[in-house]
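Run folding on both entries below.
>entry_1
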Amino acid sequence: MQLPLWIWTAYVVGVCGFALAVGGRSEKVGAAAILGGWIASVAASSFGGWGRTSGVEIVDVAVLAILVGLALRSHRWWPIFAAGFHLLAVATHWAHQLDPTVGGWAYLTAGIIWGYMLVASLGWGTWTAWRERQLIERADPTGAPGATRR
């Protein structure tokens, strides 16, 4: 049994909205890439010109390139996981193209799992960045750096 589509929509929009609202630069770039890729994938799958999977694959490879670039430039850890999960999604597309018997339940389930894990890594990264900023803002600015309180 597959989850209703509205759950995925609410999850992606909620996590990406959270990242755009309170995330740092890396989180905002990642959220824009994921949200833009999701919208472009929906558009590409409804466009019948190239074939449904080819358009989605092109979008996924473009999002993968953005996430790999983000992972290489960011000081945060979550983009590495996000790029890894999205690489698995792209590899699942390629496995389906190379062997059409990889399809149906296995192909769809793998895509769903990698998608949820990709967005979860963005959510985790956003939450930790937001939490770190809160702790820094609450820190006592009058204490000497490295000093121990007695």
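>entry_2
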Amino acid sequence: MTLKKAFPYLFLLVFTLLIIVTHISINSFMPFIDDVIVLRIYGIQFILSILLYKISSLIHAKKKEQLGYVFLITTTLKTILFYILLSVVFFPNQKWEHNTKVFLVVQFLIYLGVDVFLTARLLNSNE
């Protein structure tokens, strides 16, 4: 695998590690959510973003003009799957605190931005 093809995966890995370190640093001063849950949530977002990019790159190779629609569908499915995992696995039968909701929204928006960046990069490639 060349560096150009490995860039999205390396970017996601390095980005996720940086954001985890940043979060744990902030959480050590102002604890509001368990670090184990945080690591699992970032892990899920990392895996879902890799899957989304893999699906997008497969579609890009076959039908580049359909990539935008596929991105919308996969992002919607990612959102639904993420919400189901949160409500069933991580926070079952619990009322979410305001800090937890803010963390989840910010974290989701960060990964949505990364997904948009990688998809735009894929759309602008000449391959």
